[in-house]
């Protein structure tokens, strides 16, 4: 069949138009339906520096810019897709001495400047957490100006179980005005309360010093806390949390204190304090312990009691004994409970301006699940005054800032600038995010604010300058930090690449649904992984390695080999004998809604499973859906 020329011309032209329209249509669809374009590098990084001698302090530095690719050498990998605890804040205590100095020894203009420098995140460092003594502590002006006091003091030999004489009038003179000013400057401020001692009439010693809580005073003491929370709330000062006793395992001679053994505090929380708060509609958190890292058995006792556990939000810690990883040890046992560091004093014993210890404290506490980083006295004079003056009271403590009692002039100590390296840039509610620990003296910790901005704090504890590379997904920048200095890096944008969501750079354990730990112990020639270990030792520890492209590898801590799913037997057991990472050694880390994780093998797309199909419960990667045996709880070693 032959078309006429006009028809053929029209048909060809129509075909041309049709093809062109089709191409345009598919182009438009492709533009709007294609994946998000590859993330471009070039985010600006703001930098603030404090040097060891404080000659440079929280000073803005030249901006940096992320570049594509990875860097070598000392690498800090920041992964915003792996989040840990949310931060409550950074701060110290406006103990009686601190408030007395600020209110009575400074002019209103001096006080206003100081308070803004402490609590404003724009003109100051934005402190957002205060731990306040209920009554006297060792940082209280000596008698006859103040001396030891509680909120229910009555003549010796008398009792007041109805708390008819309860009053916070002492605090209204200068403590509450200072706290109100702080809260006005920073509305996100959280206040927690801690007693150094109950009223003396409640105790076996009959005094604010020493003794134990009388068994017939447990109910009254619980009501004492309730009245404190209600009285402060009436002053416009909400109390975020309380602890039942400051340092319950230490009984000082010369300032208020009390022995409160773990079993006694547990009984007090579950039988008295928790129910009293509940009956009065008080939502103030109850934190257990409030003492040193060297006695994790104490918080374990509280949290191990089902009734006390139900009333307890978590554990408060001090820094004067043990090591900070005790926080992680308790967290791993009670992962649904939170962690706070609530006291760590600076003083002349540090042989420094306070900056080194504050930086190490801040980084260590947060990397071990701490929601708060708290020094002790907020303000003292340059000689550690005033204090109770009993000899036992701390006369060598240093305030976050020092105020001259004669002139009202302020010295901002290293504690101030150390806290400020984080508190000025990390807003309450920010998440601690994953970052690998640096080497050669570089310590670091990272955060993600609610606005999406990232904050990395790095401290060089080495005696010489150190260069390191910050890796964020598929981008990086390099920086050289002087000896003893700290830098804060802040940037925005969204991480691209390298974001597995896994705890990259950490050593972890995995626990199967049968309650046992995944192990790489060599008990057969093919060294299969199983889930039959009842405790974590070297063979149950695995280093989480970034395998790129959002995937991870697991390196056995015991033999240095990688976990592999290579099919070399019919049951495809996982082993830890591969010396390099290829597809069979790569996994996708999949967080589950119940807090567990699943591992998907890159090579075959199946899930790692601990289903019991042999006596030794070997792990394999043959399951096509995630159920109980494919879920693992995990924790950091």
From TrEMBL:
Gene Ontology CC annotations of this record: membrane
GO MF terms, alphabetically ordered: glucosylceramidase activity
GO BP annotation list: glucosylceramide catabolic process
Entry keyword Isomerase: no
InterPro entries assigned: Actin-crosslinking, GH, GH30_C, Glyco_hydro_30, Glyco_hydro_30_TIM-barrel, Glyco_hydro_b
Keywords: Glycosidase, Hydrolase, Signal
Glycosyl hydrolase family 30 TIM-barrel domain ranges (all copies): 88-395
All copies of domain Glycosyl hydrolase family 30 beta sandwich, residue ranges: 429-489
Family label: Belongs to the glycosyl hydrolase 30 family.
Protein name as annotated: Glucosylceramidase
Species: Dictyobacter alpinus
Name of the gene: srfJ_2
């Amino acid at each position: 069949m032959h078309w006429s020329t006009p028809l053929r011309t029209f048909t060809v032209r129509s075909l041309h138009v049709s093809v062109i329209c089709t191409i345009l249509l598919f182009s438009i669809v492709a533009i709007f339906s294609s994946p998000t374009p590859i993330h471009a590098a070039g985010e600006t990084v703001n930098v603030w520096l404090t040097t060891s001698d404080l000659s440079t302090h929280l000073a803005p530095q030249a901006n940096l810019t992320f570049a594509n690719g990875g860097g070598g050498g000392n690498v800090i990998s920041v992964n915003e897709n792996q989040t840990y605890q949310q931060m409550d804040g950074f701060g110290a205590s406006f103990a009686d001495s601190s408030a007395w100095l600020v209110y009575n020894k400074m002019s209103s203009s001096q006080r206003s400047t100081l308070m803004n420098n402490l609590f404003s995140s724009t003109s100051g460092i934005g402190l957002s957490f205060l731990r306040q003594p209920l009554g006297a502590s060792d940082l209280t002006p000596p008698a006859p100006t103040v001396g030891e006091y509680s909120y229910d003091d009555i003549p010796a030999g008398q009792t007041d179980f109805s708390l008819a004489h309860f009053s916070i009038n002492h605090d209204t003179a200068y403590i509450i005005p200072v706290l109100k000013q702080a809260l006005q400057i920073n509305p996100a401020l959280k206040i927690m309360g801690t007693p150094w001692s109950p009223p003396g009439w409640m105790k076996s010693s009959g005094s604010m010093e020493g003794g134990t809580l009388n068994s017939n005073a447990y109910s009254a003491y619980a009501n004492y806390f309730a009245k404190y929370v209600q009285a402060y709330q009436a002053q416009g000062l909400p109390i975020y949390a309380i602890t039942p006793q400051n340092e319950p395992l230490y009984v000082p001679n010369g300032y208020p204190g009390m022995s409160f053994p773990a079993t006694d505090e547990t009984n007090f929380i579950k039988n008295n304090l928790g129910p009293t708060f509940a009956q009065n509609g008080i939502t103030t958190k109850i934190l257990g312990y409030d003492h040193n890292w060297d006695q994790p058995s104490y918080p374990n006792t509280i949290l191990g009691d089902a009734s006390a556990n139900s009333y307890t939000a978590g554990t408060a810690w001090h820094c004067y004994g043990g090591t900070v990883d005790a926080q992680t040890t308790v967290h791993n046992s009670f992962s649904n409970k939170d962690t706070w560091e609530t006291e760590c004093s600076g003083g002349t014993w540090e042989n420094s301006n306070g900056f080194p210890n504050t930086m190490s404290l801040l980084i260590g506490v947060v990397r071990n699940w701490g929601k708060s980083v708290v020094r002790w006295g907020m303000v003292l004079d340059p000689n550690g005054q005033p204090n109770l003056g009993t000899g036992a009271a701390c006369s060598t403590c240093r305030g976050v800032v020092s105020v001259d009692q004669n002139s009202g002039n302020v010295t901002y100590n290293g504690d101030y600038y150390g806290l400020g390296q984080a508190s000025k840039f990390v807003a309450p509610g920010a998440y601690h995010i994953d970052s690998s620990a640096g080497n050669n003296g570089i310590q670091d910790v990272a955060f993600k604010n609610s606005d999406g901005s990232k904050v990395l704090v790095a401290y060089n504890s080495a005696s010489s300058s150190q260069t390191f590379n910050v890796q964020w997904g598929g981008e990086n920048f390099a920086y050289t930090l002087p000896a003893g200095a700290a830098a804060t890096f802040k940037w925005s944008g969204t991480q691209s690449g390298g974001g597995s969501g896994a705890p990259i750079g950490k050593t972890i354990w995995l626990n199967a649904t049968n309650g046992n730990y995944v192990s790489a112990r060599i008990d057969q020639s093919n060294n299969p992984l199983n889930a039959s270990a009842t405790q974590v030792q070297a063979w149950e520890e695995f280093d989480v390695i970034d395998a790129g492209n959002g995937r991870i590898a697991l390196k056995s801590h015991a033999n240095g080999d990688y976990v592999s799913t290579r099919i070399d037997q019919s049951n495809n057991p996982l082993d830890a004998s591969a010396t390099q990472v290829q597809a069979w050694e790569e996994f996708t880390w999949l967080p589950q809604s119940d807090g567990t994780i699943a591992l998907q093998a890159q090579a075959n797309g199946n899930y790692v499973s601990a289903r019991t199909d042999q006596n030794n419960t070997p792990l394999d990667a043959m399951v096509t859906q995630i159920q109980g045996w494919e879920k693992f709880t995990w924790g950091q070693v």
